[in-house]
Amino acid sequence: MRADRLQDLHALTVSCVGAAAITSLDLRVARWRPPLPGWLGSPAFPGITEFSVEPKGTGVRVRMVASEPTDASRLLAAAVRCLRPVLVDVGPELTFAPGLPIAASPLAGVLRDVLLPDEARDPHVRRCDVLLAPDVDSASWPERASTVHISSTAWTRDGHTFDVCVDPTLHRPVGRRSTAGTSAVTASVTGGVVTLATESGKLTLGRSVTAASTRALRDVGAVVSDELPEVVTRQLHACGVVVIPPDHPVPPADDYLAWQAWSVHERRHALRQYGPAAALDAWPSVSAVLVTHRPDHLEHALRQLSRLRYPRLEVIIGAHGDEVDAARVWELAQDLPFPATVVGIEGTRNLGEALQQCCDRADGTLVTKLDDDDFYGPEHIWDLVLARQYSGAQIVGKALDWVYLESVDTTVFRPTYPAEKYADFVAGGTMLISRADLAAVGGWRPVPKSVDRALLDRVLGAGGLVYRTHGLGYVYVRHSAGHTASVRDEHFLTKTTATFPGVIAHEAFGTTAGAT
């Protein structure tokens, strides 16, 4: 089999459901690049007895042999998982029925179970959790918890119709830096084909945004047009490009905060509303874990927690040491708008042990670490969940772009570490990982400091990926004394792009007047 790009392999995978049973696969993808040099995924398929991935020029060859005949789509999905980061979290299993259109291709990497017309069924066992079926009558199909009908134009679940036109494996802001995207280009539409006039020449998008177009758009801030098709507009938004009508004002080119806030707002909406997760109701539950041993930071920490917006969120607060009254923390936590658990932790426990003790009490599919003195914007959790979805990385976190230095009462914008890229470092107070992945690497190391670095090293050492998304909505606070980090304040006053007096006041950080 052959495919030009990974997106073509995705389409081939879903179109092959129920087509044939095979025992071997020899696949060539003409154009392929791993997210990081040397990275290789896993087929995650127990019936494979032979497996090889061999880079060939600009592409790759994948060969597999299965112990017994299996649906071709399952082997193709295993190849997708080898070539692209794919996360399969605990939750309802997706069962793929034959006849699905190409619109289902964003889910190719999670394909494990297919419904074959002539398969033997156990009448005492529910066959499917979530059945993905073409838009036809499925009343005679086996017992299932729910059905998502997928047509070429819409996805339907429980009587609700979803316009799924954003593929997070393709329409995503990977490669978009914090200081990029500060220019506007014009667009024209002829016969439904969209063409952009960029500085380097014309860029033809066609009727939808392609992989090649996504890379070319990384430095574009806005597309000026009042005639773009809605599909293209939503896909551009997911990539971080805003779409505006002619004569609409734009920020100055050096106002990186305004440009990024605009871009991030649009990409959040597009990825949340028009991606597959909305139709599948598949947003994972999240446990926000905060450990504090400083009672004077408690009110600030709870104020940050109270403003977070995410539909499936719980908070685990670790009252670490005798100075923090767990009963008082519990009393204050009752005002939070989501479930909260308070864990009393002995002062003899170090930070790593305290974090693990809190994570052991977490119920969320994902856990994220928050620090008691930093600032978090309302959409902070959403940013991490979306970045995890489109990156497929085991750990995601934010760039350390914004730092408040108490010693000089100044916030610096210092985008030293490029955003929206696979990396080996993220801001420690923003790390998000699944509970399953955390357990797989042995949890938090029982160390008194550098706990963030220790977890990053564990995941990277196990062959996992770390992804650094944008830094908007997070301010790292450096106090005049008593900080656990060893880097001096003067370090953060170098290589700055902009400075702001006091704590930066902006709704993206939840630091507007009266909110800090």
Largest sheet: 8 strands, mixed
Which whole number gives the mean pLDDT?
93
- Trace the largest sheet across and list its strands: 18-17-16-19-25-21-26-24
Total separate domains: 3
Low-confidence stretches: none
Classified by CATH, the class of the largest domain is: Alpha Beta
How much β-strand is present in the residues? 25-35%
| Rg from Cα | 24 Å
The end-to-end distance, rounded to whole angstroms, is 57 Å
Question: How many DSSP E strands?
Answer: 28
Shape, per Cα inertia axes: globular
CATH topology of the largest domain: the name is Spore Coat Polysaccharide Biosynthesis Protein SpsA, Chain A
Task: Determine the oligomeric state from the structure.
Answer: single chain
SS element count, helices? 12
Percent range for helical residues?
A: 10-25%
CATH arch. level architecture of the largest domain: Alpha-Beta Complex
Overview of this structure, please?
The chain has 516 residues and is α/β, with parallel strands linked by helices. The chain folds into three domains: 161 residues, no CATH class; 90 residues, no CATH class; 227 residues, Spore Coat Polysaccharide Biosynthesis Protein SpsA, Chain A (Alpha-Beta Complex), CATH 3.90.550. It has twelve helices and 28 strands. The strands form five sheets. The chain has an eight-stranded mixed sheet, sandwiched between helices. A six-stranded mixed sheet has the order 6-5-7-8-9-10. A five-stranded mixed sheet has the order 13-12-11-14-15. The mean pLDDT is 93.
